[in-house]
Amino acid sequence: MESYKSFDPTEHGLSSNFRCKVPQEELLKLLESLGHGDHREGSIGIGLDSCVLPTRHDGISIVQTTDFFYPLVNDPYYQGKIAAANVLSDLYAMGVTECDNMLMLLGISSQMTLQERRISTKLVMEGFRDACLQAGTSVNGGQTVLNPWYIIGGVASSVCSRDEYIMPENAKVGDVLVLTKPLGTQIAVNAHQWLEEPSQWEKIEQVISKEDVIKAYLTAMFSMARLNRNGAKLMHKYGAHAATDVTGFGILGHANNLVQNQKESVSFIIKSLPIIAKMAEVAKACKINFKLLEGFSAETSGGLFICLPPEQAAKYCEEIQQLDKHQAWIIGEVIAGNHKATISPDVQIIEVDYY
Amino acid sequence: MESYKSFDPTEHGLSSNFRCKVPQEELLKLLESLGHGDHREGSIGIGLDSCVLPTRHDGISIVQTTDFFYPLVNDPYYQGKIAAANVLSDLYAMGVTECDNMLMLLGISSQMTLQERRISTKLVMEGFRDACLQAGTSVNGGQTVLNPWYIIGGVASSVCSRDEYIMPENAKVGDVLVLTKPLGTQIAVNAHQWLEEPSQWEKIEQVISKEDVIKAYLTAMFSMARLNRNGAKLMHKYGAHAATDVTGFGILGHANNLVQNQKESVSFIIKSLPIIAKMAEVAKACKINFKLLEGFSAETSGGLFICLPPEQAAKYCEEIQQLDKHQAWIIGEVIAGNHKATISPDVQIIEVDYY
Question: Residue A24: is its pLDDT beyond 60?
Answer without folding.
Answer: no
